[in-house]
Amino acid sequence: MIGRSDAQTLAGLCRKLGTLPEPEMHARGLARFLRETDAATAVGALELLSVTAQRPERATVQHAFVRLLCLMRPQMPALPGGPLPPIDATDVLPPDLACHLADVAVVEGARHIAYVLGVAFSGAPETAAKVILPGQLEDIPLGERKARARRPDPDRFKPLLVDPTPSVVDLLMDNARLTEDDVLRTTTLRPTHPFALVAVASKWRWLGRPRVLASLLLNPRTPTWLVGAMAPLATEAMLADTLRCAHFGPELREVLLHVQRGRRIGAVPRPLRVVERADAARDEKG
Known about the structure:
Elements: H1 5-18, H2 26-36, H3 39-52, H4 56-71, H5 95-108, H6 111-122, H7 142-150, H8 154-157, H9 166-172, H10 180-187, H11 194-201, H12 204-207, H13 210-218, H14 224-230, H15 236-243, H16 250-265, H17 274-285
């Protein structure tokens, strides 16, 4: 079970990441912490984080957790439009360690972490989505679209905001001339490819923007493990809007309610009984 020592472990992790000079280094620092820390201790700290990530010093760690998962490319199928670039294995977790942490989370009653890691690394692979280009981009080769994504001229890169190709989106999100409104055109695109949205969420520059976060949570093509991982960063209003989405299954909805309830009581909640789950669902509808 989650104990008092988890708060101390989490506080130490916050301090460690706070000493790193660049936010981009936080995911690597978190991966090192998870590799070097006892699994039960690490899971307890992450579960406590899931209901206290609204605190500024802890939001940094939750951002790092989301980015770490995105960089690990869980369940990424072979993409005909080009995969996301590979990541140095020393910067992320071995998949077997992620699966082990998911198993430990189940034993420890860490519901949020059990769901996120379980779906991402232990669950059945989600159906591979096809990259469907809009008509205006069909005749432009992938290599040319990637080149345009890097260019500073808005007339060259803005047509790519409706390109659902994950490798193009990954490059586009690093373009220094990109604005938040530009990013929202990509994150609100329907239909799109799930890993195009993963590419956006993996960028520290954009995940911290409330409008971008909200659009990622509400897009039906966002992978469920990513919705679960981002939920602790959401405001109360964002969580309420996400819970109203009809395309989410009951398991994810219960995890979102778990985060919401834990945030309100300031601690990791005990599992809801059947009657309490019904009451919580009725409160949301009301």
